TrEMBL record:
It comes from Aureimonas endophytica. This is ABC transporter ATP-binding protein. SUPFAM superfamilies: MOP-like, P-loop containing nucleoside triphosphate hydrolases. Residues 4-234 form the ABC transporter domain. GO terms for molecular function: ATP binding; ATP hydrolysis activity. Residues 346-365 are annotated as: Disordered.
Length: 365
């Protein structure tokens, strides 16, 4: 279909930058998610790709052709907005056919393409309905069909499911992924939902303050975050801030070997990397509460320094409130000034040396 190349693209508003020197290559048929909090610049970047915003600097190319200054109608892109942007005075067929009529296609060809697009998004037979008669999910399918019927080289989706309930979002994102895979169309999908990005993307671009924090596949982003921001934004992550002295984190409840220069670090580890054991010691960590999710339990643990961490345990482990526990940690990360400075015991590897306050090695107890 198409290859997209973004080089040093920026967009400034006044004295600040909404997008600041972003570069990205999107391969033919790839689905890339732009992920980040509100104000991170992801929608502005998408709108520049679609021609709805003009970059302050940088270039945008599609299949080697510079489209940076072309208006939306001159670009081989199709955009689906969060608001649907359907014409309420037209029925479904007329909404989808509008762009084809502007291209001067014969009536028979228009009808064939519109019916094909409706079937593709699961709305065969809905052409005569008014858009106000449709549910939110059906309206978003019409918006998707209106873009796909023009056969764009690149599909741009700007948080298309943000206004829908969770179950409908999950169903529609599966349908969109199926359609994208079937058509092999190069796609950029803007979202602030981490689950959506992990479920849909071939690669994820994590953005913050107009810049890219990390670009990688979902598994890499989740298992090997390169910044503290990415670690906290993707999935559930525990953070414990403490000092390193002599190559060890001297925490009241656990001691971790950490071969980094002395100073404060942020230790990060996921709930599934925590195992719990009994701790017949004075003080130490204790259970705050447990939540049964059916497939697992999430246990909130209060540490003696006032911080709280989560542990994911099998559903059969029923830890009680105020029960004292010892923590054994598998995969963990150390950050300083938002940057990763050390990663140890990745999933499937050996556990790091974690000790209880009395010096017992809990990793090998």
């Amino acid at each position: 279909m198409a290859r997209l190349t973004i080089k040093d693209i920026s967009k400034s508003f006044g004295t600040g930058f909404a997008v600041d020197s972003v570069s990205l290559d999107v391969e033919d048929g790839e689905l890339v998610c732009l992920l980040g909090p509100s104000g991170s610049g992801k929608s502005t970047l998408l709108r520049m790709i679609g021609g709805f915003e003009t970059p302050t600097a940088g270039t945008i190319s599609i299949d080697g052709r510079d489209v940076t200054r072309l208006p939306p109608e001159k670009r081989p892109t199709g955009m689906v907005f969060q608001s649907h942007a359907l014409w309420t005075h037209m029925n479904v067929f007329q909404n989808i056919a509008f762009g084809l009529k502007l291209r001067g296609l014969p009536r028979a060809a228009i009808a064939e393409k519109v019916e094909g697009a409706l079937a593709l998004v699961g709305l065969a037979g809905y052409g005569g309905r008014m858009t106000a008669q449709l549910s939110g999910g059906q309206q978003q399918r019409v918006a998707l069909a209106r873009s796909l019927v023009l056969e764009p080289k690149i599909l741009l989706l700007d948080e298309p499911f943000a206004s829908l309930d969770q179950h409908l979002r999950e169903r529609l994102r599966e349908e969109v992924k199926d359609i994208q895979t079937r058509l092999g169309i190069t796609t950029l999908f803007v979202t602030h939902g981490q689950d959506e990005a992990l479920a849909l993307a071939d690669r994820i671009v994590v953005m913050r303050d107009g810049r890219t924090e990390q670009i990688a596949g979902p598994s890499e982003i989740y298992r090997h975050p390169k910044t503290e921001f990415v670690a906290g934004f993707i999935g559930s992550m525990n953070f414990v801030r403490h000092e390193v002295r002599g190559g060890r984190v001297q925490h009241p409840d656990l001691t971790l070997a950490l071969p980094v220069p002395d100073g404060e670090v942020v230790l990060a580890f996921r709930p599934e990397a925590v195992s719990l054991g009994g701790a017949p010691l004075a003080g130490g960590a204790s259970v705050h509460r447990g939540i049964d999710f059916g497939t697992h339990r999430m246990i909130d643990i209060d540490l003696s320094d006032g911080s709280r961490v989560k542990a994911m345990v099998p559903p059969a482990e029923d830890w009680q409130k105020d029960q004292r526990v010892a923590l054994t940690i598998g995969a963990c990360f150390a950050f300083r000034d938002n940057r990763l400075i050390h990663e140890s015991a990745t999933a499937g590897g050996p556990s790091p040396a974690i000790a209880a306050p009395d010096g017992r090695d809990l990793a090998h107890a």
